Amino acid sequence: MIFSRKKTRPEFPTTIEINKIEFKIEVIISKKRSSSANIKERKIIFRLSEYLNNKELEKHFNSLLKRIIKKISTTNITLKSFKEILEKRELNFANTKYKLEFTKNRGIKLKENTFYINYKTKILTIEKTIIKILIEIYTKRIENYVKELNKETYNYNIKEVTLKNVGSKWGHCTHDNRIMLNLKLLNTTKEILDYVIIHEISHIKEKNHSVKFWNEVKRFSPNYKIIKNKLKKNPPPLFN
């Protein structure tokens, strides 16, 4: 009889303090060939390839962690936990102040600019539901804005525009011309928002990041390098 034994993986830290802020660390071993890391609120999520041996896993983790520390240390991002937002009973999103009020009524509902939340609801459920509601509210608005900007510039064929709450990716354009924008972009300046939209529209013609692509971006965002650097140094938070 042959017994299979599960691979023993190296132990990784579960927390780290950067700029006097404590971050939780989550390491996911996946079937991806590449390794990556992103920040979500006060958690750093590492995705490491299962094809790496233990020495390589530790090397990839340390390299990504070093990059994340540098990113957090050199940006002015304000990281608030959702628990802190709940304690304040308000959140700011897209230049709008929303109040949070706890009630005995079931579920979570938005009326005017107030979220009414059942007092027994778990924090994670509250956060996910509020994000879902905001996506529903703002998707049509951003879709109209993207189409107006496209009409004034490239006038390419855009099939769909969606909003998603994703980690570090600001936008994405699929092979069939569907554009996704990061929900956090609604908390940034018009200059940065327009740059990201123009970036993604440019992918309709150039499905890469070649010289031709950047020349396409430059047509309607001549200062894209400066704007891109601003976004890198001051990435907008989801709530502020």
Description of the molecule:
The structure is a single chain. The protein has 240 residues and is α/β, with parallel strands linked by helices. It has two domains: 15-73, no CATH class; 82-233, Metalloproteases ("zincins"), catalytic domain (Zincin-like). 37% of the residues lie in helices and 25% in strands. The protein has a four-stranded mixed beta sheet with strand order 1-2-4-3, covered by helices on one side. Strands 5-6-8-7 form a four-stranded mixed beta sheet. Strand 5 and strand 6 (96-103) form a beta hairpin.
What's the arrangement of secondary structure elements?
Layout: E1 15-18, E2 21-30, E3 36-40, E4 43-49, H1 54-73, H2 82-88, E5 90-93, E6 96-103, E7 108-111, E8 114-118, H3 123-152, E9 160-164, E10 171-173, E11 178-182, H4 190-202, H5 211-218, H6 224-233
Parallel strand pairs: 2-4, 6-8, 9-11
Antiparallel strand pairs: 1-2, 3-4, 5-6, 7-8, 10-11
Helix pairs in contact: 4-5, 4-6
